[in-house]
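ARCHIVE CARD
Drawer: 12
Card no.: 0347
Subject: one protein chain, sequence and derived structure
Cross-reference: see card 0346
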Amino acid sequence: MEYRYYLTQRPPSLGTFPKPKDNRIIDIVEFEDKKFIHNIYCKAWGYVEYEKPLTEKEISDYELID
């Protein structure tokens, strides 16, 4: 199972999402333009998928939406 987190404030880049040592990144997707994502009811620049869920602090620190 993958855990997907949307980047709503800035596109995927260095420092825009967490890279926990014990949680492998499975995929990083950047959209051409910021687009509306129906299941989170807002626009996002892309998303990052992880092997395990992120902590609430990681989600908050990077302003992600799951």
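Annotation on reverse: DSSP finds one helix and four strands in the chain. The chain has a mean pLDDT of 97.
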